[in-house]
Amino acid sequence: MFLGGILPDNDAPGLGMQSVANHGTAKILIGSPASKWLLLATSLLAVIPVWVTHYPPMSDLPQHAAQIALLKNLNDPQFQFTNMFHLNWFTPYLLGYLLIYVLAPLFGILAACKISVSLFVAGLPLSTGYLISSVGIDAFWAILCVPGAYGFAYQWGFLNFLIAAPVGICFLAFVIRRQESFSRGTAAFLGVSALILFFCHALICAFFGICAVLYIAATSKSFRVATCRLLPLTSVIPVAFLWIHRTSESPGAKRPGRGDLNWLITTDPYYRSLCYSLHFRYAFWGRMTGFPPNLLGLFPSWSHLLIAAALIMLPFCAGFRFSKRFAYRLPLLVCVSVLLWCPLTVFGTDFVYQRFSMFAIPMLLLALEPPAGLMNQAFLIKSVAFLVVVSLVTAAGVRAKAFDRETNGFKHAVALMEPGQRALSLAFDHDDGVSTAPTFLHFASWYAAEKRGVVDPSVAMMHPELVVYRTGATPKAVLWDFEWDPEEFEWNAYSGNQYRYFVVRSQEDRTDSLFSGASCVVLPRLHEDEWWLYERTNNCPNRAGGHP
């Protein structure tokens, strides 16, 4: 669908009957086959940073991988923690989890995660090419979306959001392409697609649903026509409200929201502390100052600001201007509004507006129209765009390799841990030095994913998850608090005797402070770089948690 959509198409519904006549040559408008293949090659090149490291540098990905392992292990009679969890099929996180669940038996959970992430990284520019070719723009320019694939949502590891992103872009492209040939079949497909999009990710559904509603309203010839065409999209409303009603009392959903309308200086404690630790003169990552680092996944600097500006300005240097059709500009206005005004936390979900940075360039390209004729400098500008993108892909690969070197101690620790045990993660040092997200915050959960164990704290306490804790089974070590402040750990308060292993990431030896009050013997098993592995012996009174 992506590649077919970016081929020259004189009947593209988004262009109407005047596509080529109004804009000069089809080559500039929709793109030659060479543009299609160059976009495909660049998209495939972009997945290399995902594979040059053993574990991808994505903060929440280990937790999502652990969810897939739990889904599989709950059907295993030898899994001793089954009574702690239950399935939650009514969740808007289905696409990403089911995709990995299907791939895992063939490739293993880790490789399945990498394949799914690769589908996002390649799918973002390819789906954007499909989208912009709907309005007569050379699909080549979709390569400008590649750097955004390594941005905020990628480094934080928002797996289901990432995998749903290309689906949402294709949904909007379908709306644009079918507006001039709307039929009952189109209406039925839109209604089903809206439901599917919700079960991919609720935020993606909301964003592209709003874009679709505004586009249909702006391009319909009358109120009656607009009503008929918008009606199928309402299929998702009762499902969404039912999900909200069912989950509104969960601990995650009841967390207070955060607005954070600071456009220049962030109030988020993690990014403020990160800026100070890196000796920035003042805290960046406000809504406007944070856009370049959120888009590129790079630390704030003037050079990175110039790179972000170049990605935005290159199409204008090639002669593009904003489209005269207001409907094409509406999705960009929605994206800008989200980045400027959307709350930081929505219904228990953190970092909401930042993750939409990746859509800024796709929506910008949609809002443009190509020059009236071939420009002499077009080839030069395209060459510059290609070199900039390839350089950023290379830089992402270098960062991934640097991250990989930081994981060696953990890989050796996992090799020493017996399968099917319960572990506690104590990540005092969250950062890897090259990523703009705390990539080691949940890293110990890879043990749960790869060795059929359970690691606390776990996202199983979150309301959108596929596998969640049963009532009364939620551990004391919970998300939002403990993973950020493992200094809170105290043996009796956190029922230390229920854990077989303690995975610690710290620059200093914390053995005495962590286990001085232990009622069991806890032995150090490994210390390599900043990684420490401790094991509780079986000589422990009042054991809990089903351990042997």
Keywords:
548 residues; alpha/beta; five-stranded mixed beta sheet; two-stranded antiparallel sheet; 24 helices; globular
Structure report:
The chain is of the alpha/beta class and 548 residues long. The chain has 2 domains: 2-399, no CATH class; 408-536, no CATH class. Helix content is 49%, strand content 7%. The protein is built from 24 helices and 9 strands. It has helices at residues 2-5, 19-23, 26-29, 33-45, 48-51, 61-73, 94-107, 109-133, 152-156, 159-178, 184-200, 202-219, 223-230, 236-247, 269-277, 291-296, 302-317, 326-341, 352-355, 360-366, 378-405, 408-416, 445-451, 511-515; strands at residues 85-87, 321-322, 368-369, 422-427, 454-456, 467-469, 501-505, 522-528, 531-536. It has a 5-stranded mixed sheet with strand order 5-4-7-9-8. It has a two-stranded antiparallel sheet with strand order 1-6. Strands 2-3 form a two-stranded antiparallel ribbon. α6 packs parallel to α23, α8 (109-133) runs parallel beside α10 (159-178) and α17 (302-317) runs antiparallel to α21. The longest helix has 28 residues, at 378-405. It is globular and about 80 Å long. The N and C termini lie far apart (52 Å). Residues 6-30 and 543-548 have low confidence and may be disordered.
In short:
The protein has 548 residues and is an alpha/beta fold.
